Amino acid sequence: MKASLCILLFSMALFHVNAQWYRDFGRDVADAGRRVADAVGDAGRYVTQAAQGTWDMGRAYWDMREANFKNSDKYFHARGNYDAAHRGAGGKDMAEFISNTREYLQGGSSGRGVEDSEADQEANRWGREGGNPNRYRPSGLPEKY
């Protein structure tokens, strides 16, 4: 009788330990699933923001071309970066990538030199960090822009 009582108590203790382990394991798996779902959602939002930021940068470029207004390029640099950065981290990163790539590829071939490229980059950073693009807006630029 004592042996069967000991086996019964031992079995109950073992069951309790295993049951607790399974509950903890189940919670851990559920938490991991939620973290994966959150990461996938975050990645999707980042890609969407990057695409929207690319659109903002392109729109600023085409507006600059359409305006064809003297001394307005810094304004459009700042505005494109500002708009893209306000989309979120993806837009801000894409604005930085596009700005840096443009300046690198231009490489002084614009005929304006290193100083102009550095001024462009300063306007890019200003807009990307949330500075008002109107700081660079030339007087007389149509309100449309």
Automatic annotation (TrEMBL):
Q: Which UniProt keywords apply?
A: Acute phase, HDL, Signal
UniProt lists the gene as: LOC117352368
User: Record's Gene3D superfamilies?
Assistant: Serum amyloid A protein
What job does this protein perform?
Major acute phase reactant. Apolipoprotein of the HDL complex.
Its recorded name reads: Serum amyloid A protein
For the region Disordered, give the residue spans. Answer: 106-145
What family does this belong to? Belongs to the SAA family.
Keyword Membrane assigned: no
Instruction: Say yes or no: keyword Signal present.
Output: yes
Q: Which organism is it from?
A: Geotrypetes seraphini (Gaboon caecilian)
Q: Which Gene Ontology BP terms does the record give?
A: acute-phase response
